[in-house]
Write a structure and sequence with these properties.
- This protein is of the alpha/beta class and 343 residues long.
- It has 2 domains: 85 residues, DNA polymerase, domain 1; 248 residues, Alpha-Beta Barrel (TIM Barrel).
- The protein contains 14 helices and 7 strands.
- Strands 1-2-3-4-5-6-7 form a 7-stranded parallel β-sheet.
- Helix 11 links the parallel strand 5 and strand 6.
- Helix 1 packs antiparallel against helix 2 and helix 6 packs across helix 13.
- The structure holds zinc ion (2 copies).
- One zinc ion binds next to loops.
Length: 343
């Protein structure tokens, strides 16, 4: 294992464990240094015992570099990496495990093209390692400028890139998509012909979250009724303990989701955990379909499905109502079916 690969894996592990303090900064700093120098220098410095003279390299980073270089000869995984692997496992209950085992793909994630931290290829390779059969890449739409949302031209370029990558990772499937903003009037932040071209469209509210309930209801109903929208992303927009959920009439919104064949996302991010249990129950009563997604912005976050699966298990969501328990072909058949026959 190269030192850089070892650091990338450490960052993945820290991220899946929600670490964001000193340790992450320290490893990120050292990783930047390693990425910028030629590998031979690291070997020389290991021999000379001068690794810690490099900017950002402390005791822990020096140990990881040393062990990674040794591992290139022994083939063993660096002991320090094994320790971090063990410390950062995402815990899961047996009830939630049933859902994790049933999921075949993840329908909501971001890459460096918008506000994610990893390349499409890194996200895909991680998903393959997790046993997924497919992912849907859903970077942000143009109006979300803070997240570097993709306009038409960049989305077309991304689709072309995905086409090339697809061949390298087959039989794994990469489906095209976007997390398209639901604008204030309920229209979508992308032209119809582009929405039509995408395999899976997640639509989410990211602006004016405090809109008055009646208006928000109209806005969401209009969006989920669009024939292009397949999944309603993080429906309340809440951030646990930080931002109150948006107010809307869940009966109208979820009845519309059920009628127009739009799945309700169960968002696995710990700061979102959206929908909250009481709304999940309403969506279930209306006969909605669901999609359990990570909304990952980095490779480690692709391991967060257990949180969404815990919500599904606690709410007794029937597994057959979760669209990403289906194969990629069955999912595509579902997204392209006319609203009335989407079951
Ligand atoms: Zn979002
Ligand atoms: Zn997202």
């Amino acid at each position: 294992m190269t030192p850089l690969a070892a650091f990338e894996r450490v960052m993945h592990c820290l991220d899946r464990a929600h670490a964001n303090g000193f340790k992450v900064k320290a490893f990120a700093g050292a990783m930047e240094t390693i990425a910028s120098i030629e590998p031979g220098e690291l070997h020389r410095r290991v021999a000379a015992g001068t690794l810690k003279e490099l900017p950002g390299v402390g005791d822990a980073s020096a140990r990881l570099i040393r062990e990674a270089i040794e591992s290139e000869e022994t083939g063993e995984i660096p002991a320090y990496l094994l320790k971090i692997e063990a410390e950062t496992q995402v815990e899961i209950s047996p009830a939630a495990q049933v859902y994790v085992d049933a999921l075949k793909g993840d329908c909501h994630m971001h890459s460096k093209w918008s506000d994610g931290g990893a390349t499409i290829e890194s996200m895909v390779r991680t998903a393959i390692g997790l046993g997924h059969e497919y992912v849907v890449l859903t970077d942000h739409s143009p109006r979300l400028t803070v997240a570097h949302g993709l306009d038409r031209g960049r989305l077309e370029a991304q689709i072309a890139d995905i086409d090339v990558l697809r061949e390298r990772v087959a039989p794994f499937r990469i489906l095209t998509g976007m997390e398209v903003d639901i604008l204030e009037d309920g229209t979508l932040d992308l032209d119809d012909d582009m929405l039509e071209r995408l395999d899976v469209v997640v639509a989410s509210v990211h602006s004016k979250l405090k809109m008055e309930s009646r208006q928000m209801t109209e806005r969401m109903v209009r969006a989920v009724a669009s024939p292009h929208v397949d999944i309603l992303g993080h429906c309340t927009g809440r951030l646990v303990d930080k931002r109150a959920p948006s107010q809307f009439d869940p009966d109208y919104v979820f009845a519309a989701c059920a009628a127009f064949g739009t799945a309700v996302e169960i968002n696995s991010r710990v700061e979102r955990l959206d929908p909250p249990p009481e709304l999940l129950a309403v969506a279930l009563d209306h006969g909605c379909m669901f999609s359990i997604d990570t909304d990952a912005h980095a490779t480690g976050q692709l391991e967060w499905l257990p949180y969404g699966c815990t919500i599904a298990a606690d709410g007794d969501v029937p597994v057959e109502r979760i669209v990403n328990t289906r194969s990629a072909d069955d999912l595509l058949a579902w997204t392209s079916a006319p609203a009335g026959s989407k079951v």
